[in-house]
Amino acid sequence: MVLERAASSAIDTFDPAQAAGAYGRPLLYAQRALRYFHDRARFRRIESEYGAVLRVAAPAAIASATDPAQLVIEITAPSPVSVAGARAALASLFAAFPPHHFNGIDVEPHQVSLLAESVSRLQSVRSVYTLLSPTGGVLVIYEGFNPDVDRVADPAERERKTRELLRQTLEEFRSTLAVSEQPVTLVAQVPVAQQGAMSSSQESLLKAANASDGANRVVLRFGSIASAETPAQNSRVTPRKEEALAADSVEVRGPAEAAARVVAELERRVAQAAASLALRSFRADVPVPQSLVARVVGRGGETLKKLRAGRDVTIDVGDNS
């Protein structure tokens, strides 16, 4: 260990990749461990305990690193004793989380949100901590305290059980994705009068529900439009037989989670249209003396135009006002 003095401070470094031991992918191990320790604020504890400053790569730099040298941690403290203590604490921290305590899978970015509900349950049941990346990475870490693992005395067997625990956790995540993305057909009730506008703007509707492209793609069939369509009489290709769909219904086909989001968006728009209609359905007759009609109407109907535009109302002036 080499200590240097610069500006009355002691400086040393710690290489996380060296803690990988015989593991064949030291860069991957360093990236996983650093990402986890960042999330769990482990470096702050060491800084607080030893009065040191740890210069650790930021999460974005960790993810994009191509060489272990880019992830070396610099330790700075007022004295060599503090630096040595902080370095020993780092060594102990990484030793407590060897490579087999980490495992991960890559998923599509849109799938990350589908796993959120499973994370807290698995964390409590299996003592496994999970990090979900918005870009599509799923990292699981064994934090200890699982009796099925910790009570095993033989180190090799304990490592095997740890690996199996993480593998099972990732398999459950994969199963969750498989179920969530199972194609389904749902039906939403949409008044016929609203279907035309929804059909012509369905791309924006699907985008609002994050169901417009890729694995999230959802297909809509509008009952009022489907019932009005007539099959071609002279086609040599027999069209796929569609199930009958009520005129006031919209069929939603696609992955379960995405289809559910689209149904929710359809229902939201129907409710919004109903609320708007309710506001517009109010009607009141206001008697106006004949002598004041001209003032209400205004020159060339100017006053009425301003009222209609500014209040978003319809005003009719009867002959007997």
Short summary of the structure?
The chain has 321 residues and is α+β, with helices and mostly antiparallel strands. It contains 13 helices and 10 strands. The termini are far apart.
Structural features, described:
With 321 residues, the protein is of the alpha+beta class. It contains 13 helices and ten strands. It has helices spanning 26-39, 42-50, 59-64, 80-96, 112-126, 147-150, 155-180, 192-200, 202-208, 223-226, 256-280, 293-297, 302-311; strands at residues 4-6, 9-14, 53-55, 73-77, 102-106, 128-132, 137-142, 183-189, 219-222, 249-255. A four-stranded antiparallel beta sheet has the order 1-2-4-3, with helices on one face. It has a three-stranded antiparallel beta sheet with strand order 5-7-6, sandwiched between helices. A hairpin with a 2-residue loop joins strand 1 (4-6) and strand 2 (9-14). Helix 2 (42-50) packs antiparallel against helix 4 (80-96) and helix 5 (112-126) runs antiparallel to helix 7 (155-180). The relative contact order is 0.08.
Shape: elongated
H/E element string?
A: EEHHEHEHEHEEHHEHHEHEHHH
Helix content: 40-55%
Determine the structural class based on helices, strands and strand pairing.
Answer: alpha+beta
Largest sheet: 4 strands, antiparallel
Poorly predicted ranges: 1-5, 229-240
- Integer-rounded radius of gyration: 33 Å
Average pLDDT reading: 85
Distance between the termini: 99 Å
